[in-house]
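tool=predict chain=A
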Amino acid sequence: EAKSVSAVVMNPYTGEILAEASYPSYDGNDYAAIAASSPARFIDPIVSSVYEPGSVFKMFTAVAALESGSVTTKTRINDTGTLKLDGGRSRIDDADRKAKGWMTFEDAIAWSRNVVAAKVALGLDRDIRTASSMLHSTWTRFGFGSPTGIDLAGEVRGIVRDPAISTWRQIDLANGSFGQGIAVTPLQLAVAYSTMVNGGQRITPHVVKAVGMAETVAATKGRVIAPSLSKTMVRMMNHVVTLVPFYRDRTLIDGYEVGGKTGTAQIWNPKANGGRGAWKRDIFNYSFIGYIARDPGRPDLVVAVRIEEGKPTIKGPGQLE
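tool=predict ok
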């Protein structure tokens, strides 16, 4: 019962968009009727629509932390289920609001523990300003807040709040660590994950295969992370879908290596409570960004899927992240 669903598949090394689709779509033969009744249908949500992505952003928190050396994949962190911030004025919870106890960082990412992601983000530096700047810098290096440069019209840059302009509180840093309080496009996520798994090079996506006999040349925007860290991120993504049973059952494909990260984000309704706002109930934005590989450790494709305002059909510990 989702409002819409979008997916994009790309080559993480060349930026070539191999497939892209959204539903509901429209009949190109009935263009005039759609233009008269539902002109918004012509907006491509993959490049022109932003949303809070949720826990798929935990991978960028992992990048920032592993790069800084504040944690390793094997660092043990106590998942307390809930975490009070800003002197007790704010609080975040894990989806199930239950403590899982001490666990390795890579396991916490696989089980998508909000409290652990927040603790790691807050631990980037003793100074909240510096920690906020480090996480924000990681986001912008991967391209969030900027157009990807794809050869399609109507691309938007997303919404990324700069802590140097508007100071972040602990709750802002914590929310950002698991993908709330930031708005991105599905294409930005696909490009960023491509950067994460292709050895660390940020690429420009394109849909035009060739002009005449001249094929489009892959354009890179420089190195974002070290090749060694890229390999670690590939392993972490594979760990997500092999460790957690309800991911493994629905994700693994015989003969291929698969990796990725889930995301389930709450949706804010600013009109609720007489204009005071409130979270929508039992409706979420779902995401999965991942890779598939013929040879272990070398992804061939990156796939990004977004389900907008979907209702959960399975009630369980993975419902919220």
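Residues 317-321 have pLDDT under 50 and may be disordered. The longest strand covers residues 278-293.
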